């Protein structure tokens, strides 16, 4: 009786191929519900398994998982193989493979030969066969979900790999405080000076909601910009920021044009922070600030031996081709952003004239290496300043592969705009960039800032507003 009751409560999810290609671990993510895999899904997995792309890797991994599950429970294929052992307790449902022809009459306008329509026919047949228990199609394909709903079937997107349901909740790295903040948390206020910076120790109810390296700012008669350097229980220490908006603190000739840029430069120029993420729309200055800080730390302060810049060449992680040329030359078409920013950074050296500028440009170029993501596996970077541009196009797994390349003394900076994702099946909520921003918040050696204001030109700003 108990098992029947469980079946009433549990649902039957029919998996489309693209879900397995997107996340092979989805087999273990449906908790107490059962999973149904049509034979056509296995056929499609087979066609995708060749090659070195991320999709092919995922197809092979999904097949390995299926093999593991089916080998352990071959005698239970008819009734469904329990997933509990294979998933190490994460899923308590069963895996059901299609063992007999299932089909239901679809509208004549839907061609039967198409795999998508065959899967829709199976969902319809399962729904008719077991009326009490909902059969739900899970697919990343929007059109497939629309067709399913048009046929009166239940369909859902696969959300399990989403870091955040709503990207508005994504950590911005900064927070405005008002006068009442000091009244609430400043009862035992201590302040002191060290190395030209002011420090404040505060205690109160707001402190547990602060993150390490979060930027706090206050406007008004006594403006303040500070970084949270320590949080313990209800006690926190704030350190005032260096003012990079002032010309005397310029970084390779660049000064911050707004508050968020000042926050970003404070994180980029701090050698104690190993991992920085900068989010922002086009024109907020992400690449320019990062390169200026990189050049200052590499050429002036000699903290790093060189700058390595990589960006996702969409199609992501595909081969960069057999055109003649070195890795750098093949990456050149994707590196227009780097060249544009280097032109700006070289302009600031006015004293040397044309010769001086040319010499500076050659020196700067010799210290910047451009690498393709394809050759990153197995490498370790020592004392490098690694910039990952267009990071919103990376999956969480690719992001992990890249960030774990960092050896001792390496700083990693991820730049991106989660509103511009070009990779199929990645959304703002499941992008690798969203993933690292969320997972790294509050670590003492990482910082994040969402840049708000575009600083390109009045034309670009107006275009962004009205177009």
UniProtKB/TrEMBL annotation:
The record's section on SMART domains has: PINc (SM00670)
Q: Where is the PIN domain?
A: 11-146
Q: Name the GO cellular-component terms.
A: cytosol
What keyword terms does UniProt attach to this protein?
ATP-binding, Nucleotide-binding
Molecular functions (GO terms): ATP binding
Q: Which SUPFAM superfamilies match?
A: P-loop containing nucleoside triphosphate hydrolases, PIN domain-like
Q: Which family does it belong to?
A: Belongs to the PhoH family. In the N-terminal section; belongs to the PINc/VapC protein family.
Q: What is this protein called?
A: Phosphate starvation-inducible protein PhoH
Organism (species): Crenobacter luteus
């Amino acid at each position: 009786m108990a098992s029947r009751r469980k079946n009433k409560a549990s649902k039957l999810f029919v998996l489309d191929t693209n879900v397995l290609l997107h996340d092979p671990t989805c087999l273990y993510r449906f908790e107490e519900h059962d999973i149904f895999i049509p034979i056509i899904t296995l056929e499609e997995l087979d066609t995708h398994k060749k090659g070195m792309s991320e999709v092919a890797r995922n197809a092979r991994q999904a097949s390995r998982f299926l093999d593991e599950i089916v080998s352990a429970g071959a005698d239970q294929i008819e009734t469904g193989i329990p997933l509990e052992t294979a998933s190490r307790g994460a899923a308590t449902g069963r895996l059901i493979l299609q063992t007999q022809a299932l089909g239901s009459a679809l509208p004549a306008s839907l061609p039967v030969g198409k795999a998508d329509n065959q899967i829709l026919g199976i969902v319809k047949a399962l729904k008719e066969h077991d009326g009490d228990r909902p059969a739900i199609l899970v697919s990343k394909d929007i059109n497939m979900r629309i067709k399913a709903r048009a046929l009166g079937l239940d369909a859902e997107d696969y959300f399990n790999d989403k870091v955040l349901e709503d990207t508005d909740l994504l950590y911005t790295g900064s927070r405005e405080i008002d006068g009442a903040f000091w009244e609430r948390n400043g009862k035992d206020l201590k302040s002191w000076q060290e190395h030209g910076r002011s420090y404040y120790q505060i205690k109160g109810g707001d402190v547990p909601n602060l993150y390490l390296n979060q930027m706090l700012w206050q406007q008004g008669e006594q403006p303040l910009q500070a970084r949270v350097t320590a949080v313990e229980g209800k006690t926190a220490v704030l350190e005032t920021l260096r003012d990079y908006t002032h010309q005397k603190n310029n970084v390779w000739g660049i000064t911050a044009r707004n508050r968020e840029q000042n926050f970003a430069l404070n994180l980029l120029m701090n050698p104690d922070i190993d991992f920085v993420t900068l989010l922002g729309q086009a024109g907020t200055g992400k690449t320019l600030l990062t390169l200026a800080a990189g050049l200052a730390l590499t050429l002036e302060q000699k903290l790093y031996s060189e700058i390595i810049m990589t960006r996702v060449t969409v199609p992501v992680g595909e081969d960069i081709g057999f055109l003649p040329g070195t890795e750098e030359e093949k990456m050149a078409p994707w590196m227009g952003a780097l060249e544009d920013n280097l032109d700006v950074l070289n302009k600031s050296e006015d004293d040397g004239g044309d010769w001086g500028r040319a010499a500076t440009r050659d020196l700067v170029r010799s210290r910047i290496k451009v690498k393709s993501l394809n050759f990153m596996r197995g490498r370790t970077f020592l004392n490098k300043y690694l910039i990952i541009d267009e990071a919103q196009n990376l999956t969480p797994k690719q992001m992990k592969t890249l960030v774990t390349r960092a050896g001792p003394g390496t700083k990693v900076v991820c730049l991106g705009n989660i509103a511009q994702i070009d990779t199929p099946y990645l959304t703002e909520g499941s992008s690798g960039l969203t993933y690292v921003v969320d997972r790294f918040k509050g670590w003492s050696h990482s910082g994040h800032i969402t840049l708000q204001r575009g600083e390109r030109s009045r034309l670009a700003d107006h275009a962004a507003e009205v177009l």
